[in-house]
Amino acid sequence: MQSRYRHQSDRRPAGDALGTHDARAGQRPRLARPVSVPPDRHTARWKSYLRDCDSLLDFVEPMQVSGRVTRVAGLVMECVGLRLAVGSACTIPMANGIRVEAEVVGFDGDRLFLMPQSDVEGIVPGSRVFPIEASVPKPGSVAHPRRRPSDRARHLPVGDALLGRVVDGAGRPLDGLGPLGAQHMAPISARPVNPLDRAPITETLDVGVRAINSMLTVGRGQRLGLFAGTGVGKSVLLGMIARYTTADVIVVGLIGERGREVKEFIEQILGPVGRARSAVVAAPADSPPLMRLQGAAYATAIAEHFRDEGKSVLLIMDSLTRYAMAQREIALAIGEPPATKGYPPSVFAKLPVLVERAGNGLEGGGSITAFYTVLSEGDDQQDPIADAARGILDGHIVLDRHLAEAGHYPAIDIEQSISRAMHGITSTPHQHAARRLKQLYSRYQRSRDLISVGAYAPGSDPVLDQAIALHDRIEAFLCQEIPDKVDMQESLTQLTALFE
């Protein structure tokens, strides 16, 4: 056959190969195939589409597999018959048509430990467990194959559609305003940013609170902790920051709070103005521990999406302690031994993973300025979670109960509070004035008992004399009513006027 074709090819007229025709035979010209023709835009798009289809075939399972529930003990279910990675999502259908979603939190041999996202009532021995595949992207929507573990994790809606909305830890609306209609999905567990690629903190962020703007200046991309006991006004202070900040977008994560406080924070403290540019993720105290963990990660993923768009984002997480408690419940339920005050080691490993996702993005990009509230049990600042949070945050603001009981709002203790980024983003006169105010305030507090009983003789200490003379003005400067907004420039002007 090959010899015959080669023989026929040899007998073909030379004019045919050159694209000419024989005028005597009356044949139409036959053009030869060009050596190389650059593909047009339409062809290039189809080739790119087919390449994406070929790469996405790796994410399609050839058959549906399932496992069986063998044990339910407390918060954890055990399953056999599946080989899934930690963090994978599963669903357990029940006889009444309801499906319980769960997540793989550990394994022991062939047994998987599942943590449900809702109540487990109705699950019977031998219930089938089906893995939930990660949503496969549409061809052409990604520039690279989804090969990382975070890309296979659960994806939830993000983007502008969440502004003004309230959702739970699974991305379901809680405000009764209908479906979200989000155009973008993102994994709740993102890869950490290379620290060398982060932009440095060089700009200030106006939060509208005089005591913070002047004494504890916040930088764009900074992560601060709000340390307070219960009932000292931390939610009110967060509401003031969210309402008066100059950030483009606000993301609020209400993790482990009482359900009543969730509605109050949204309607009364945040207000209509703050809510219009805010995305709220609520995982109340009655939610399963997995939903509280997922709610914190989801709120961070929403903030990361806006940061990647080049926006300045304010992330408020209330509270980091409830997040740690949820992880403690899960770790103890799967058999992890307790360590410091009942907290397993995995708790202290997860805290920096969550916090490090906030901060500045790449050079010239957006930023996430984060406030994490930390509950101090019994107003003990040496609580394990509080102590660990101070080491991984870029500053801490301490609210004092005695100041709150005396009607000093916001009850910020400027002696114990510090902003580690303030030195690099403020001017030298500003730093001198803030340091001078703190010295006078501290000197007065140390001699408060002597002054109150009249045991101090004026003139003995010139610094203390000045502190006594300026005490009322300093107290008025550090206090601020909820409806009042004091921007950065006005805060510096009033700070300088104290010593004139």
TrEMBL record:
Q: Where do the record's region annotations for Disordered lie?
A: 1-39
> GO MF terms on file?
ATP binding; ATP hydrolysis activity; protein-exporting ATPase activity; proton-transporting ATP synthase activity, rotational mechanism
Under the heading SUPFAM superfamilies, the entry gives: P-loop containing nucleoside triphosphate hydrolases
Q: What is its EC number?
A: 7.1.2.2
- Keyword Cytoplasm included in the entry's annotation: yes
Entries under InterPro entries matching the protein: AAA+_ATPase, ATPase_a/bsu_AS, ATPase_alpha/beta_chains, ATPase_F1/V1/A1_a/bsu_nucl-bd, ATPase_T3SS_FliI/YscN, FliI_clade1, P-loop_NTPase, T3SS_ATPase_C
Catalytic activities: ATP + H2O + cellular proteinSide 1 = ADP + phosphate + cellular proteinSide 2
> Where can this protein be found?
Cytoplasm
Q: Where are the transmembrane segments?
A: none
Q: Which Gene3D superfamilies match?
A: 3.40.50.12240
Q: Name one Pfam family in it.
A: ATP-synt_ab
The AAA+ ATPase domain, residue ranges: 220-403
* Keywords (A to Z) from UniProt: ATP synthesis, ATP-binding, Bacterial flagellum biogenesis, Bacterial flagellum protein export, Cell projection, Cilium, Cytoplasm, Flagellum, Hydrogen ion transport, Ion transport, Nucleotide-binding, Protein transport, Translocase, Transport
The UniProt entry's GO CC annotations, sorted and at most eight, read: cytoplasm; type III protein secretion system complex
Q: Per the record, where are the segments of Basic and acidic residues compositional bias?
A: 7-25
* Gene Ontology biological process terms in this record: bacterial-type flagellum assembly; bacterial-type flagellum-dependent cell motility; protein secretion by the type III secretion system
Family of the protein in this entry:
Belongs to the ATPase alpha/beta chains family.
Q: What is this protein called?
A: Flagellum-specific ATP synthase
The protein's organism comes out as: Massilia eurypsychrophila
